[in-house]
Amino acid sequence: MLLTVENLQKSFPSADGPVPVLRGVSFSLAAGRTLALTGESGSGKSTLLHLCAGLDAPDAGRIVIEGRDIAAQSDAGRAAMRRDTVGLVFQQFNLIPSLSVADNLSFHARLAGRDDPDRDAALAERLGLAAHLAKFPEQLSGGQQQRVAIGRVLAARPHLILADEPTGNLDEATGAAVLDLMLELVAESGAAFLMVTHSERLAARLDARLHLRAGQVE
Ligand SMILES: Nc1ncnc2c1ncn2[C@@H]1O[C@H](COP(=O)(O)OP(=O)(O)OP(=O)(O)O)[C@@H](O)[C@H]1O
User: Fold this and answer.
1) How many folded domains does the chain comprise?
2) Please, which domain of life does this record's source organism belong to (predicted)?
3) Fewer C-beta within 10 Å: the chain N or C terminus?
């Protein structure tokens, strides 16, 4: 299994004491498979995604990525796993405004030491960005910006791609087209893909679904 999550627990502090958000979540995801993470607002989807990305640490339980327990790593070890193994796509595109589209595309691959100009050019072509490489993010539409964010992740060739409502800022038609393209490129890359979505329709396009209710898998 590429990703195995076992009995994950996470609470957040509040004035009335700790509030449990994840209450024993377990699942696994194989390489090349896509999984939609659904559930009501507040059910713990983003929290689960952030833990899988090593952006936060669980209170209990295990997150094993390619045989390594991410929670058992030091901060530096977690940062290295994020850089080398995991790719993240958020609802906010999070592009670097001062860098051109071309430099945004290759940014993560460079950090991971996997920069390949020929591959980047082919990826830009597939993403419909070839004519926009010298532009800056603010000169692109939302759909184009999200395609840059997706390309930036794919260019670094992560084995696990985590996406938090990646089409949430796009209109329905643009969102559906961007998701199709993302799924096609993810399938070609062989990565495992975990995506938070509120949309039943988008969730149905992935191989499987994990539905959270009040911090537990339903
Ligand atoms: N850093 C934090 N500190 C305190 N509480 C938090 C924190 N992050 C999340 N929470 C709480 O945890 C619960 C779950 O939040 P989470 O964002 O994981 O839900 P979600 O299912 O992704 O919701 P949505 O669909 O609205 O994005 C919420 O009640 C939220 O207020």
Assistant:
1) 1
2) Bacteria
3) C
- Judging by beta carbons within 10 Å of its beta carbon (0-12, 13-18, 19+), is residue 49 exposed, middle or buried? buried
The encoded tokens of residue 212 equal 């959270």
* Any ligand 1 atom below 6 A from CB of 42: yes
pLDDT in tens, 48-91: 999 999 988 999 999 999 999 998 888 888 888 888 899 999 99
Structure tokens at 201: 């329709």
Q: Which two tokens stand for residue 16?
A: 């009335």
Q: Is 74 helix (H, G, I), strand (E, B) or coil?
A: coil
ipTM: 0.95
CATH number of the domain to which 203 belongs: 3.40.50.300
With CA atoms as reference, report the closest residue to 96 among 134, 149, 54, 24: 149
For residue 49, the ligand 1 atom closest to its alpha carbon is 18
State if residue 87 touches ligand 1 by the CB under 6 angstroms criterion.
no
Looking at ligand 1, which atom is closest to the CA of residue 48? 18
pTM of the model: 0.94
Could you tell me if 154 and 87 are in contact, meaning their C-beta atoms sit under 8 angstroms apart? Answer: yes
The span from the CA of 215 to the CA of 11, in Å, is 10
Q: How far apart are the first and last CA of the chain?
A: 21
Dihedral pair phi/psi, residue 75, rounded to 5°: -55, -40
